[in-house]
Amino acid sequence: MTAQAADPPGAGAPGSGPARPTATLPVPQLVRLSLYWLGLSSIFAGLTNILGNRLQFTGLVAPGTEGTTLFELTIGGSIVALLVQPTVGSLSDYTISRWGRRKPYILVGSLLDVAFLYGIAVSNTVLAIAAFVMLLQFSSNFAQGPFQGYVPDLVPGHQVGLASSLVGLMQIMGQVAGFTIGSIAAATHNYVAGTMALGVLELVTMLSVVLRVDDGRTTKSRNGRSWLSIAREAWATDVLREHSFLWLVGSRLLFLMGAAMLVILGPFYLHQTFGLDESQSGTTFLVVVAFVLVANLLAVLPAGRLSDRVGRKRLLYVSFALGAVGMAIVAIAPILPVAYLGVVLFGLASGTFLAVDWALMTEIIPRASSGRYMGISNVATASASIFALALGGTLMDAVDRSLGSGLGPRAAYGLAVAFFVIGGLLLRPVDERRR
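Above: the chain's sequence. Below: its structure in token form.
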């Protein structure tokens, strides 16, 4: 991979470079651009479900420490993700190869993902699993950082709503696929096959990008700078001048923290609060996944298109409100059918959020540095689970120990309601006008 010899004047400066494309892309091309999100999103959704069940039902840790241990298993990997994704995304902004500037990272990262998933699958100690989770976070973010630059790179402004809806749809389907694989693994007590199935799914979706997407050859010039200098640029302080971007990243973090509470602590909620055993918990989680999927599908495409007409922020406010109400219902539900109602509202909220937040983010970032800025924006995605576990998992264990098993998950879900409320407030300073 080498730097391109010549670029338009000013292409190396953040915020400069060619304008957003204007040519309409065929819908199949938009689908291919977003399909890899299905594979990427399935990995950690499924793996978190699998690890939660392994901790709870295979004797890896003592009862009452599952939430804290899951946090310890994932904190190192989340830190790796925070560092790798913006850095590699920035490197890809300057990369050129016969495959384009994004594909080499996507291919290498995906192949490494499969190897590290195998390491997790066959490891039988908390320390070994934690080490492979860190490696998996490195490789998956090595691929994801460059990949998420595609929408601002290739999609014209009038198709951003549709493209972002498709991205949200694929993320949702990936999460659902991951949860489903994890639940089947728990229900059948076959965690090795479940873990490797996540890797196979990612490889299949990766091929849709590497083989079928032309990402062009336009790139930023290094102007003689070393790759180390380019990597350091990802963390330059000029990003602090992008106030709307920073507020939107904070808002995204709070929404995703609330959402992570539901899915990460789901196995504990079903087992501790409603007394379900391993098989029942896995099967019931499939029902939860089905409700989330249907609600997501009902919301994601209409939300992206509607936001083109009424504005992105209005739809995002709706998503935060629905998320808060839905999680409140889950937190206090006396029986599972009532909890399902809250899950449906949450599904509508997450479908709306995933489509509209992505569209707004692609419009307010400097396009010439899309890999860098989209990588930084997904610091929220990478850190949401770790913050949710640090706060929610710790709270769950503390309440369980002091007030009795079963109340801990309810307390954690109550905390998630606060995340949605605060996240909505952080939207207020965001200027949604397209750059």
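The first helix runs from residue 27 to 57.
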